[in-house]
Amino acid sequence: MRIGALKLKVQIFCGDAIAMGPGKADLLDAIEGEGSISAAAKAMGMSYRRSWLLVDEMNRCWPEPLVEAVAGGGRRSGARLTAMGARVRDLYRTLEQDVESAARGGAFAALADMVRSAPVQTA
Predict the structure, then answer these.
(1) What per-residue confidence (pLDDT) applies to 1?
(2) Secondary structure class of 66 (helix, strand, coil)
(3) Cβ atoms 20, 85 nearer than 8 A
C-alpha cells in the first residue's frame, strides 16, 4: 500500500520463505475467482510455473494447505482455497487494513512529510 511517498508491504515469514504477502494474497483471490491455478496465473499475467511454486511455498508454510488442487481435467478438476486458505487470506487482508489505518498518522505521517520526492542530484 502506498500512502504519499511511503510504501508499506506486510509480509509474514516462515523461516526465509514468505508465507504470505500481497502478491500471494492476490493469487489466492485469483484462484478463488478462477477455479484453477493456471487460470489464476493467466489472469494475473504470470506463468503457471511461478504460480504453482508460490502455491507450493504457501502450502508448506502453514499447518494445513491453503490451496487444494484436483488434477484430471474432469468436471471436478481445478483448484480451490481450503478453509485454512480462506482464513489466512482474510486475516492477512484484515492485517493490511489495520496497518494502513495505523499508517495514516503518527510517525508514518511525519516521515511522509519529511522525505524528499526524489533524491538530490550530486555534482
Answers:
(1) 66
(2) coil
(3) no
pLDDT for the residue 24? 98
CATH number for 85: 1.10.10.10
Number of neighbours of residue 97 by Cβ within 10 angstroms: 11
Q: Considering the domain boundaries, does residue 104 fall inside one? A: no
The range of the structural domain enclosing residue 87 comes to 2-97
Count the domains in the chain: 1
Q: What angle do CA 63, 66, 69 make, to 5 degrees?
A: 125
**Across the chain, which distance is largest between two alpha carbons, in Å?**
65
- Of residues 73, 40, 42, 43, the one with CA closest to residue 55: 40
The answer as to whether 76 is a domain residue is yes
- What residues in the chain have per-residue pLDDT under 50? none
Reported in sequence order, the residue ranges of 29-115 that DSSP labels E, i.e. its strands, are 67-70, 78-81
Would you say residue 116 lies in a domain? no
